[in-house]
Amino acid sequence: MLFLLRMLVMAVHFVLAGILGLLIGICRPFNPDNSRLCARLYALPALCILRLKLRTEVESMRAQRQACVIVANHQSNYDLYVIGGVVPPRTVSIGKKSLKWIPLFGQLYWLAGNVLIDRGNAKKAKEAMLTTTEVLRHQDTSIWVFPEGTRNAGEALLPFKKGAFQMAIAAGVPIVPVCVSRYVRQIRLNSWDAGKILIRSLPAIPTTGLTQADLPGLIDHCHAQMQACIDALDAELALA
């Protein structure tokens, strides 16, 4: 019963947040800080509705004084509510083109300045990536990417796609890994207290001086660091 009630309230919240976010986007279209504001609109009320206890340790991400590429693990659609509260200022994300067809949210996502990529069209996807690299270089705007490329509720991270790391090297900006504990199988939405989630950012990985030849080693290094951190977060929750 509690689960159904929560889902009903969440549906109403999703619509209201979408309307408010759309108004923000219409008033200041493509402002790179729209994403942070809209993410808060979705995330903060949702955490209260779901009664999820979120602990964040993201000082290394907040300490960045230049544009960067933020990479995070992607678990479910609930990431919007879980991660939304830690999105830093002037940060946009990369999403698939089909997102724009979601009523309210899709239009909001576009007006918030996020980058929509047609993954089925290699030429257009590459053009979008080149545009995003220019944003990193010249517009003081960071990019949030889920390098696994899809939702993953498993124990191990999927292999990372190259795009985020290619952009970081091309723009000469650091990479900031953000790790979220594996919450998908732990949250209990039919219980009053639905569960605990930990989010931790790791020290920035510099890319200055790297070339595309360094790409495999950079990806492997980031993947290993994030896997170890996620395992550590899960272990901390198990002991709590």
UniProtKB/TrEMBL annotation:
Catalytic activity: a 1-acyl-sn-glycero-3-phosphate + an acyl-CoA = a 1,2-diacyl-sn-glycero-3-phosphate + CoA
Annotated InterPro entries: AGP_acyltrans, Plipid/glycerol_acylTrfase
Domain Phospholipid/glycerol acyltransferase: 68-183
Family: Belongs to the 1-acyl-sn-glycerol-3-phosphate acyltransferase family.
Any single Pfam family the record assigns to this protein: Acyltransferase
Involved pathway(s): Lipid metabolism; Phospholipid metabolism; CDP-diacylglycerol biosynthesis; CDP-diacylglycerol from sn-glycerol 3-phosphate: step 2/3
Protein's name in the database: 1-acyl-sn-glycerol-3-phosphate acyltransferase
SMART domains attached to this UniProt entry: PlsC
Enzyme class: transferase
Listed GO MF terms: 1-acylglycerol-3-phosphate O-acyltransferase activity
Keywords: Acyltransferase, Lipid biosynthesis, Lipid metabolism, Membrane, Phospholipid biosynthesis, Phospholipid metabolism, Transferase, Transmembrane, Transmembrane helix
EC number of the protein: 2.3.1.51
Record's comment describing the protein's domains: The HXXXXD motif is essential for acyltransferase activity and may constitute the binding site for the phosphate moiety of the glycerol-3-phosphate.
Bilayer-spanning residue ranges: 7-26
Highest taxon of source: Bacteria
